[in-house]
Amino acid sequence: MRMSHALDPDLLARLAPDLRAAVEVQLRQALTAEAELRQHLEAENADLRARNDRLEHLVREFQRARFGPRSEKLHPDQMELAFEGEPCRANGPSDIGERGRDRDRHRRA
Questions:
Q1: Degrees (nearest 5) of the Cα angle 11, 17, 23?
Q2: How many domains does the chain fold into?
Q3: Is residue 104 part of a domain?
């Protein structure tokens, strides 16, 4: 049965009782199927919204990691590569400290 028109209660009342019962069964089945489909779609929509929220969160985290203020910091391994071959003076005076003191002496003189 095609249900393109609004259901007219007067039209239903004029149907033969067995035909009317068959139409009512089909209507109940259609309404049940529609309710089940709607419930399924609402659950799927909620799942997709949750997944979308998670993906948006990940994008923000990746952007923060890539473009945030901490993104310019070097990894310790990169620091080792930068200073590879340089003598380590952990216990002695640093060149920077000595140069800084020399500048201060020249300014005072």
A1: 60
A2: 1
A3: no
Global pTM reads: 0.47
Residue 67 lies in domain: 9-85
Q: Is the dihedral of CA 81, 82, 87, 88 positive or negative?
A: negative
Residues of the chain with pLDDT under 70: 1-6, 70-76, 78-109
Nearest-angstrom CA–CA distance, 35 and 27: 12
Q: Does some domain include residue 92?
A: no
User: Is 68 part of a structural domain of the chain?
Assistant: yes
C-alpha dihedral, 98 to 103 to 106 to 107, nearest 10°: -140
